[in-house]
Amino acid sequence: MKYSPINSKLFINNRKNFMAKMKPSSLAVFNSNDVFTTGADSTLPFTQNRDLFYLSGADQENTILVLFPDCPDPAHREVLFVTETNAHIAVWEGEKLTKEKATEVSGIKTVYWLKDFDKKFFEMMTQCNTIYFNTNEHYRQSVELETREDRFIKRTKEQYPAHNYAKSAPILQRLRSVKDSIEIDLMQQACDITNAGFRRVLKFLKPGVMEYEVEAEFLHEFIRRRSDGFAYTPIIASGNNANVLHYIENNQECKDGDLMLIDAGAQYANYASDMSRTIPVNGRFTERQKQVYDAVLRVKNDATKMLVPGTLWKEYHVEVGKLMTKELLNLGLLDKADVQNEDPNWPAYKKYFMHGTSHHIGLDTHDYGILWEPMQAGNVFTVEPGIYIPEEGFGIRLEDDVVINESGAPFNLMRDIPIETEEIEEIMNS
Ligand code: GLY
Ligand code: MN
Ligand code: MN
Question: Where does the Aminopeptidase P N-terminal domain lie (predicted)?
Answer without folding.
Answer: 6-142
